[in-house]
Design brief:
Largest sheet: 10 strands, mixed
Strand order of the largest sheet: 13-14-15-12-11-16-17-31-25-24
Low-confidence stretches: 496-526, 534-545
Bound molecules: NADPH dihydro-nicotinamide-adenine-dinucleotide phosphate
Structural class: alpha/beta
Helix content: 40-55%
Radius of gyration: 29 Å
Number of strands: 31
Distance between the termini: 34 Å
């Protein structure tokens, strides 16, 4: 027999990992209870549910079926623990996290086997990937606990965090959530997925072992309808961190709307795997194996859409089929298998149903010739060719080992095809031409882009989605902000401001008008205008009603679609002007204009900075005029109004400065290569301005948004819109491209609703009432747009700490991590 013959016929013998220690561990603890306040607690219901091994369908153990009473108990324990844990020095928290990491390593084999038994994934992956990454997360975040005071000055923990995790990477998702939460001084109630709770309960033992204070970590197992929903709705939970399906993410967004709970959502995906014709096709084949057959394809960022340049498609498909024929599906504890079992019969049925749908839709399905084990829930690797981009299998997340392939001709077509889903979690780009790969990466709507690689993860590099893949990041410094809030925010009061209430003003006094006074006292009015400079020596007075600005859309002043104008009143209740009454159609036109201005983001940051400086310059020459307009609209003293204009000017300068300095980071994860973490524009944003500080509020919001490359539709203060409309000429003379800023005046809440409902708006910022904030968050669930609302709380717009800088820039961007491995 020749070596070639041996190579061809050689079979792997079985190399099973022993299950006995893990099974003994389970038997000793049967049934597994809830972990609350460092105690093992029987569920209030007295009920237990079965945890099944998907590789053979047999029951492994009974786990507690928690309910809302258990969640109440866990939240109470976490709240009590928060009092001390949040004040525990960073160094002490770091030592606890370090101890957790060490103990994960000590128990790594037990954890890996338990995970394989519980989820059905291969021991090769749990042992070599999941568990080492879990330990790495705790080490990395031990570092951030140590550095929090210096690395995130002015930030405080959020409070009690409810965390809900899925079944596909049970312990890894736990680590991604618990490590940053604890590092930043929060306490946690975590709900594991019903199918895969075992490693979370082993983790609870580690928590006990290292002596973490009681109540810092609580784990409540059970059904979504009993535990998950109770956690989401609990009034004493300050943040929800969720990973799972987009549908559940959407329902959590709705359930928490208006509650003020922080929310991060890591949802589904349909990630493109793009292969250009100069790629190394043998590496591509291995890449595809890792992209879609890793973890049985039950991976949110799985490269499930193979996009091939047309001229290499046939060759690549035939190479793939050869490789698929060699993949091994079987006992997850066998170290030589490639794919284990599907997590549950329900998931298996879903996969089968979608594959049948793909065939019915006319795509060509191919599977290897061998059969899967029949005991347990197995599914073979599957490849679809001849797939049309609009069909279900090209659009729906299958969450199984099913790859759909399509072809493209040009790089532009590849980008269009890649972005043609509602998701935006990850993407892979394969080309030996680094210029091409790095040109494509920023054009992809995805939180992670892997160049000539796939499914790489590290604690230092944030992970999370664009669009309906959710928002928020896990890992990296950006992930920490999900678990903190600015210290000043803890003490702000809700806004209760009828028109012309007493806003704080620069010199520490308040406005001249109290909320019950709509008419100016004559003497007071005289005093104000006596103090105002005039341009031509004439006595200052209210001008007659000749101010009728239109809307500002696509760089032009346009009449409102309604044909109506609305009166603008001064502090005496007198009419001081009229503005266009914008409506739904105007907002739609403005959204279209904002989309058409996409050249803004692809232009240089230097160019954006120049335009912001130019705006400031043009505003500076008219500062007295703007100050007089503010006095006229608000009745505040002239000196105060001038101060507002000058702060607005300074703010324009600040964001012009930030434009080419808010730039991201280069990470060095433990591999040969770098990760470029780039803050990117979110896209088209809707912005709703506060009534306080008509000019400053407006400038403070539009400037950071456009500085970062977004294009916007902005609704100025409903009460005092003239400062925004006065800016039309400044915008027109500052070289701002048409459509970057679109201004629609009118009634704030209905206009805002159109923005929040709009599927082509990527984010909404809202500064208004508590009810309005809730409406925005509710409506945002439609396309899972990002929101930033004030829940009716005040912000001091004069104060640079509260109203300028990095918080605004973070809200105006989303971080994309581009992985660039190197070396031959
Ligand atoms: P779900 O989104 O239903 O479950 C994820 C987690 O959320 C589980 O802990 C689940 O609990 C819990 N949960 C479910 N409903 C609610 C709710 N209303 N309120 C609070 N918590 C809730 O995912 P599935 O397990 O049902 O999987 C369905 C599909 O979701 C998959 O086919 C896949 O497409 C996608 N998915 C995506 C994941 C990702 O990583 N992005 C991970 C898992 C699934 P319980 O386990 O008790 O139901």
């Amino acid at each position: 027999m020749s070596i070639l013959d041996i190579f061809e016929t050689m079979e792997y013998g079985p190399a099973p990992e022993a299950a006995a220690p893990a099974l003994a561990w389970l038997k000793e603890r049967q049934p597994l209870r809830l972990f609350i306040n460092n105690q093992w607690v029987a569920p209030s219901s007295g009920q237990y549910i079965e945890s099944v091994n998907p590789a053979d369908g047999k029951t492994l153990v009974q786990i507690a079926a928690g309910n809302s009473a258990d969640v109440d108990m866990a939240v109470e324990a976490a709240r009590t623990a928060f009092e001390t844990w949040s004040k525990t020095p960073g160094h002490v928290r770091a030592r606890y996290l370090y101890a957790i990491a060490r103990h994960i390593q000590k128990h790594s084999r037990l954890l890996a086997v338990l995970e394989s038994l519980d989820n059905g994934k291969s021991i090769r992956e749990t042992r070599d990937l999941d568990i080492p990454l879990v330990a790495r997360h705790f080490y990395y975040h031990a570092g951030w606990a140590q550095l929090m005071a210096s690395g995130l000055p002015g930030y405080e923990p959020v409070g009690v965090v409810g965390q809900i995790i899925p079944w596909n990477f049970p312990l890894l998702m736990l680590a991604w959530k618990i490590a940053p939460a604890l590092a930043m001084g929060n306490t946690v109630v975590l709900k594991p997925a019903r199918y895969t709770s075992l490693t979370a309960l082993k983790f609870a033992e580690i928590v006990q072992e290292i002596g973490l204070p009681p109540g810092v970590v609580n784990i409540v197992t059970g059904e979504a309808s009993q535990v998950g929903e109770a956690l989401v709705r609990h009034p004493d939970v300050n943040k929800i961190a969720f990973t799972g399906s987009t549908d559940v993410g959407r329902s959590i967004r709705r359930a928490t709307a208006g509650s003020g709970k922080k929310l991060s959502l890591e949802l589904g995906g349909k990630s493109p795997f793009i292969v250009f014709d100069d790629a190394d096709l043998d590496s591509v084949v291995e890449g595809v194996v890792d992209a879609i057959w890793f973890n049985q394809g039950e991976v949110c960022c799985a490269g499930s859409r193979l996009l091939m340049q047309e001229n290499i498609a046939e060759q690549l498909v035939s190479k793939l089929r050869v490789r698929m024929e060699r993949l091994r599906v079987g006992n997850p504890l066998d170290k030589a298998i490639d794919m284990g079992a599907i997590v549950s019969p329900g998931q298996l049925t879903d996969i089968q149903r979608l594959v049948e749908l793909g065939v019915a839709e006319g795509a060509e399905m191919w599977q290897p010739s061998w059969a899967c084990p029949t005991e347990g829930y197995f599914y073979p690797p599957t490849l679809f060719t001849n797939v049309s981009p609009a069909t279900s299998i090209a659009q729906v997340e299958i969450f199984g080992p099913v790859l759909v392939s399509m072809t493209f001709r040009t790089p532009a077509e590849a980008v269009a095809l890649a972005n043609n889903t509602r998701y935006g979690l990850a993407a892979s780009v394969w080309s030996e031409n680094i210029n091409l790969a790095l040109d494509i990466a920023p054009k992809l709507k995805a939180g992670s882009v892997w160049i000539n690689s796939t499914n790489l993860f590290d604690a230092s590099s944030g992970f999370g989605g664009y669009r309906e893949s959710g928002y928020g990041r896990e890992g990296g410094k950006e992930g920490l902000y999900e678990y903190v809030r600015p210290a000043w925010k803890i003490h702000t009061a809700p806004v209760s401001t009828p028109p012309f209430a007493q806003f704080p003003i620069a010199n520490g006094s308040t406005t001249l008008f109290n909320e019950n006074t709509s008419l100016l006292d004559r003497d007071v009015e005289d005093d104000i205008f006596a103090s105002m400079p005039t341009t031509n020596g004439a006595t200052a007075s209210f001008p007659s009603i000749d101010r009728t600005p239109k809307l500002f859309i696509k760089g032009k002043q346009v009449r409102p679609d309604s044909g109506y104008s609305r009166d603008v009143y001064g502090p005496k209740g007198q009419t001081i002007g009229q503005v266009g009454e914008g409506n739904r159609k105007d907002i739609r036109n403005a959204v279209e204009a904002a989309h058409a201005a996409s050249g803004w983001v692809s232009g240089t940051a230097h160019n954006r900075a120049q335009i912001l400086y130019y705006m400031a310059e043009n505003l500076a020459v008219r500062e007295e005029e703007f100050a007089r307009s503010i006095v006229q609209q608000t009745g505040r003293p002239y000196a105060d109004a001038l101060n507002e204009v000058q702060i607005a000017l300074s703010r324009l300068f600040s964001y012009a400065a930030w434009t080419d300095k808010y730039e991201g980071t280069v990470h060095k994860p433990p591999m040969r290569g770098v990760v470029l973490a780039l803050p990117e524009a979110i896209g088209v944003m809707g912005i709703v301005c506060p009534d306080e500080y008509p000019l400053l509020g407006f400038v403070s919001l539009f400037a950071p948004a456009i500085a970062m490359g977004n294009t916007i539709i902005i609704i100025p203060s409903e009460q005092s819109p003239l400062s925004a409309t006065d800016l039309y000429q400044v915008l027109e003379t500052s070289d701002l491209p048409a459509g970057v800023i679109n201004i629609v005046t009118g009634e704030r809440e209905p206009l805002c609703q159109v923005l929040a409902d709009h599927d082509d708006v990527d984010a909404v910022w809202y500064f208004g009432t508590a009810e309005g904030s809730k409406r925005v968050e509710l409506a945002s669930a439609g396309n899972m747009k990002r929101t930033w609302v004030n829940y009716g709380h005040t912000r001091d717009w004069l104060d640079t700490v509260q109203s300028e800088g990095q918080e605004f820039l973070r809200e105006a961007t989303q971080v994309k991590n581009i992985w660039v491995p190197y070396g031959e």
